[in-house]
Automatic annotation (TrEMBL):
The keyword Ion transport does not apply. Signal peptide: none annotated. GO terms for biological process: fatty acid metabolic process. This is ACB domain-containing protein. Belongs to the ACBP family. It comes from Cylindrotheca closterium. Keywords: Lipid-binding, Membrane, Transmembrane, Transmembrane helix. Residues 92-122 are annotated as: Disordered.
Amino acid sequence: MSDRDIAATFRQKVVFMKSWKPASMPSNRDRLELYALHKQSVSSDAPSSFPNSASAAEKAKYNAWRTKSGLSATEAMKLYLQESDRQIRVYGSSSNNNNNNIKQATNGPSAIRSSSASIASEDSTVSTPRGIAAIPLLCAAANESRTAYLRRISQTPSDAAWWARQEALCGENPSSVFAFPESLVIFLAKQVEALSLASGNNVIRAFLWPLHNSLLSLWIMAIASITLFDGVLKILKVLVWGARRTGISLSLIWKDLNLLVSSVHAACEPQQAITCRLVGLGLLPATYTVSLLDKGFPSVTLASVGLVALLTMNLWYFVFLLPWAGFWMLWFSVLAGFSFAVIEFAGA
């Protein structure tokens, strides 16, 4: 499919998505993912700076857009088509959708779905790093204040719980090895959220607020670690079997790894929550390794061999040290929760 055909299909899809009425409300993360891909498609890379006076919603949009930096307009359009198809499958369509939109024979979603499916099959080198894209959005969520958290929980019915709608982003399916760390974090967070919703008591909810924010940061840790080692496994496949047989490009793998580096560095910025900065600090040694190898070797193959060797030697750091640090983060969030519960009880 030519770039002109992709652009035409993209424009049709954008029109449809504006009128699409999902059967269930998409998560903020997924809505921001579509926003970011659309902005990258039509406006290229996000600006390097953003006003500090911007609202939290504007900052979340900017951070989501920035994760797509480096993608060409055509690549971003392809990813937009793939992501919008995924969301239509996940969230469904309301029965009162405009019939003219649903039944379009040539320009409607059926044609668009088939076109974007052909795009995916034609260009298997385009990846959709959903986990990486979620990192700045989770950082924004972790910045939620205690007051905002209490207000949101008090207005949220149990069947609209936020954590209950989340899914592992890195594994191919919920039972895969790569999905397990994320699934464990999400499971724990669901229990915390269920308890918070069922309590109806702001003192208990204030106690659980630090735990909620820490679990958001641990999700970032899980996503970053899994993405890194998934990239290493892909590199090994290419080094052993070759790019032609595996259908994977080393340059694309490194592009995803560099997106991960920028997302982790963004998590360390001063405006982020302390838990996000701590997680980002724990991941910095790995991201600096990726950056140094990427810039220090003239050959992507040599850089790939070096990355595999260094991460293999430091596997203990991700298997033992980071999970242990995550456990202590949860423990300290429980201790902090007692303080916030007292503050809420006192009405301060």
